[in-house]
Design a protein that fits this description.
The protein is an alpha/beta fold and 243 residues long. The chain has ten helices and eleven strands. It has helices at 13-17, 36-39, 42-47, 49-62, 70-81, 96-100, 159-167, 187-193, 207-215, 228-242; strands at residues 7-11, 30-31, 34-35, 86-90, 105-107, 110-117, 123-125, 145-149, 171-175, 197-202, 222-225. Helix 9 links the parallel strand 10 (197-202) and strand 11 (222-225). The longest helix has 15 residues, at 228-242.
Length: 243
Amino acid sequence: MTRIRNIVILTGAGISAESGLATFRGPDGLWEGHRVEDVCTPEALARDPALVLNFYDTRRRALADVRPNPAHEALARLDAAWPGELLIVTQNVDDLHERAGAKRLIHMHGELLSALCVRCGARSHFEGAMIDGPACPACGQRGGLRPDIVFFGEIPYQMEAIEAALREADLFVSIGTSGTVYPAAGFVQLARAVGADTLELNLEPSAGTADGNAGGGYGFAASEFGAASVLVPAWADRLLADR
């Protein structure tokens, strides 16, 4: 195997599930009892802002009751110790990677602890309740804050930086993702197209697993299945031992 120096790691809802946060969509297709179309689209925010703001206010409050698990901690340890380029790209909107200590991190779908002002465009750290119509910390106007979340139909954050890192990657690892939400689901294809090794650590096979096993083309070259809190620390330890 080619010597690994540059690593891109994608994390999804599965890594935070063991901390007690609900995965994005359950088996019934609902997210905390709501259709995604009712809480995670620009149209939903325009149609029923109270429902959408209350939904994310509840998710924000729930962060106080959860803690990073061994998978988050292992990635933070890897981030601190890895001498080459490393980027953690998370689809999650929680702050568990940061609380575990990760630094080289992009939230491609936004953050619960951030507010976006539709009046001035500023993003601000936010821990309160948006349903109360607080003033924007940047411009001072009230009633213009919305969750700094990438809704369906909106462009994920920092895609240019993510794609640049993938083009230089020697290793792409996907952790706790379904492989069905684009553009993140296409990262494995980009990584393999530039010759990177690819690995998924997942509770169960994903769409990328099926693609790789069926066609041998642009799915993952290797897959390991089990709890992220077990798989990720073991993988990180092996990687650091072999560097």
